[in-house]
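Predict the assembly for these two chains.
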Amino acid sequence: MTGLITYIVVIFYFSIIAYLGWKGYRGTKSDLDYLLAGRKVHPYVMAMSYGATFISTSAIIGFGGAAAVFGMGLLWLTFLNIFIGIFLAFVIFGDRTRQMGHQLNAHTFPELMGLRFRSRFIQGFSGLVIFLFMPLYTSVVIIGAAKFISSGFAIDYELALFGFSTIVAFYVIMGGLKGVMYTDAFQGTLMLVGMLFLLIFTYSKLGGVVEAHQKLTDLAPIAREVFKGTGHQGWTAFPIFGSQFWWIMVSTIITGVGIGVLAQPQLVVRFMTVRSKRELNRAVLIGGVFILIVVGVVYVVGSLTNVLFYEGTGKVAIVVSRGNVNEIIPKFISGYMPEWFGIVFLLTLLAAAMSTISSQFHAMGTSLGRDFYEKGIRGGRQSVRSMTVTRVGILISIVLSVFLGYWLEKTYGGTGTSIIARGTAIFFGLCAATFLPMYFGALYSRKITRTGAIAGMITGFVVSGFWLLFMHAKESTALLLCDRWFGRPCLLQYLNETSGKWVSHITGPIIWAEVDPIIFALPLAILMTIGYSVITRPLPEKHLDRCFSK
Amino acid sequence: MGIQSTAVWLAYLLSVVSAIGCVIYGVINWNKGASKVKKEDRAWLEKEEAREEEIS
């Protein structure tokens, strides 16, 4: 992707971004002005900016790569993303979060929970969980962007990683761009148009919708050969029930990400910035279509890359990328798409990554400074030091995320692991198990007590952590703690003396070492939240009246 | 459709149907839910802006 056309596209793109940034900055001096003056922002602009921050680069690169491995069965996640991530999130959680957040004057997710349940511990603990574990999610978003840069500009991954991280760090340290609604909307529109182009281009190159699917179906014997022993049945079929791939797809990727989106701290905060329920209603319309096009296309095109790669090289996607799942989409874009499209796509994805990552760094910094330090440690006494801790928190999270981005790619890069999809799923699953029962209870029940909320939160966190460290083979093997303590990579595996390999215990269709933590942690957390709330004293009626705006 | 299994075909269909559902919901409720700015909303935004300024 070099040459004159590249430079023209880059200059044109940045000119538009600069103009829109200036227009947004000039038009809306502050959020307060916007709210009080009742300035009208077109619902399209608003919903597109939602979409651009909702879907990050990692979704396109990482989950597109995962679709090239697992196939179109991942479309179940598109359905959940629309139904749970847009419809339920906006309609069931959105307005109540906004009202309660404003009523209690809460500005972060931990603060909202802490004030709702009158618990410094809840705020401090939630803040610490976000600060310690969100770097995993941020790192996989960075990996997605760095992979695409390294492929697009033909430079080393390490150089792309550190170069991109430095730019994002400056962006965050400078305070991020203010009044970015128009630029976000422009990027959202580009993503929408780009993905539609990608879909139409791919389908037409393969002779139409049905023909393309049929060609992919015809590759099933090759899928079974390449992914032997995993339960793969082809890219337009679901893996065999109870097989290794079935458990990864259903329990980790589809359930973890599909449900986990409801308890994402940085997304919850977005509901509070909305002016009224009307804006949320309107966002449902455009958000639903946006997710269908962007995410749906990722899974369809991701799967279809196998046909194009096979027709061009005689090898399927995972073989062409030499086992590196995250390289599949970048290789496909640079190999099969027109040059101008590649560069526009690259710039759009980078912009999407920057806005997502900067909001994540912001969430991690405030979690450490405001929630953990100021509220959890100092008991709510404000000081100049809490601001310093927030800034140090942002810095630490940047360093940690970049290090993880380097280490994860180095460790899992060529192993066929969908590290972006898995990293996202682990964080989403952890958030769901730790925060979701408490969050839902906070919004919808006056009967959930402080002890109930704490019991559910601790249970969700401890069970998820324990399962990841000792039971879920992929993570427990990599984290080494299980090996050090128990002399085996995973407690749910045994050494097969004939093959000399560690294999999982199996009960009927259950491969225990492949079952995701969320399957146990979330139901247990719900049970503990309800159970402890039944036997402990509820919060004072007056406080509850305030929370529920009465 | 050229798709091998019903489970995958169903996911394809449900994705489109749920997006259409979102469109219908949005159209029906397009002008519903507008509310006046309360003093809590104003206080919330003032504090939010002050915090943003502190960090940047």
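Strands of chain A lie at 493-496, 501-504, 506-507, 510-511. DSSP finds 24 helices and four strands in chain A.
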